[in-house]
Amino acid sequence: MPDKRLIVDTPNGPALIHQPAGMSVIPFQATATAEIAPSDAEWDDLHKKLKTGKLDFATVKKEHGITGEQTN
């Protein structure tokens, strides 16, 4: 199982999660979760946007072509 990169929508805004291979992640209070596959540079850029409040779940879905989402 390879590493996964996830974006999780929460009541406090989106969160980025790097899930190492062989580990499981259970995001509490998540309203939606989607796996994304950005390059390392894109991942770093997402972190910067998140820190400045310029990132929301809908924008990331659009930018990364996420058509569905897993909801908890």
Describe this structure in words.
The chain has 72 residues and is of the alpha+beta class. It has a domain at 4-18 and 29-63. Helices cover 28% and strands 26% of the residues. A three-stranded antiparallel β-sheet has the order 2-1-3, covered by helices on one side. Strand 1 (4-10) and strand 2 (13-19) form a beta hairpin. The model has no long low-confidence stretch (mean pLDDT 80).
Features:
alpha+beta, 26% strand
SSE blueprint and pairings:
Blueprint: E1 4-10, E2 13-19, E3 32-36, H1 40-52, H2 57-63
Antiparallel strand pairs: 1-2, 1-3
Concise synopsis of the structure shown:
This protein is α+β, with helices and mostly antiparallel strands and 72 residues long.
Major beta sheet summary: 3 strands, antiparallel
The N- and C-terminal alpha carbons lie at a distance of 22 Å
Count of DSSP-assigned helices: 2
State the secondary-structure class: alpha+beta
Strand order of the largest sheet: 2-1-3
